Amino acid sequence: MRIVGLLLLVLQATMLASAFDPSPLQDFCVAVDHPKSAVFVNGKFCKDPKLVKAEDFVFRGLNIAGNTMNKQGSNVTLVNVDRLPGLNTLGISLARLDYAPYGLNPPHTHPRGTEILVVVEGSLLVGFVTSNPNKLFTKVLNKGDVFVFPIGLIHFQLNVGHAPALAFAGLSSQNPGVITIANAVFGSDPPISIDVLTKAFQVDNNVIQALMQQFKA
Fold first, then answer.
1. Taking the model in full, what pTM does it have?
2. Whose CB among 73, 115, 142, 177 lies 3.0–4.6 Å from 149's, allowing a Cys bridge?
3. DSSP H or E segment with residue 214
């Protein structure tokens, strides 16, 4: 019994040593000394259970196609905790993705969530790039095919068909976040220094300025 007790103590110590903070649910969470000053507690405050209604767990409208009349020819309708309060603390969200013919969901990342995508209509060229070394994994998906994009990695989808395409995606966070690479690099506010960008991309100042004009807010 003494040996069993020692083993249980060792197991408990190991479990405590391997514990870690939960994943963040926003870009940053500045600590405050006074709770009255807090806005977020790594997510959202919880509603009094006595006041919860069935409506808190319902979102309507994913049957409606998104507007793809834009430069990229795509639209993402995200159902996260801001649009469906019942998702709070559950670690999941959902998105509808509409693509015009040859429409693109441009290279982007979700800093807080893995994405699993299923094609409902059409054909999509999809892919993601690993961290160094930057290896591309890519595939053409057809109706009924499923693909997974690991958390934090740059990924994209391109409609390679002559007709509109439709996909749905599940994400492993109630607020996965999205960083669209081109917008973040060339359209940040305030803008990144041109000296930084010319050196990073090894191109002339005029090229960087032209790109910044394209993504200017």
1. 0.87
2. 115
3. helix 205-214
Q: How far apart, in whole angstroms, are the C-alpha atoms of residue 186 and residue 188?
A: 6
107 CB-contact burial (10 Å; exposed 0-12 / middle 13-18 / buried 19+): middle
The position carrying tokens 């559950």 is 90
Tell me if 187 sits within 8 A of 215, measured CB to CB.
yes
Q: Both tokens of residue 72?
A: 């990229």
Beta strands in the chain (DSSP E): 74-79, 93-99, 104-109, 115-121, 124-129, 136-141, 146-149, 154-159, 165-171, 179-180
Q: Is 81 helix (H, G, I), strand (E, B) or coil?
A: coil
- How does pLDDT run along the chain (217 residues), one tens digit per residue? 555 454 444 445 444 444 557 778 888 777 778 777 777 777 788 889 999 999 999 999 999 999 999 999 999 999 999 999 999 989 999 999 999 999 999 999 999 999 999 999 999 999 999 999 999 999 999 999 999 999 999 999 999 999 999 999 999 999 999 999 999 999 999 999 999 999 999 999 999 999 999 998 6
How distant, in Å, are the alpha carbons of 59, 170, 175 from that of 94?
Answer: 11, 5, 10
Q: What angle do CA 192, 196, 199 make, to 5 degrees?
A: 145
For residue 100, the surrounding DSSP H or E stretch is none
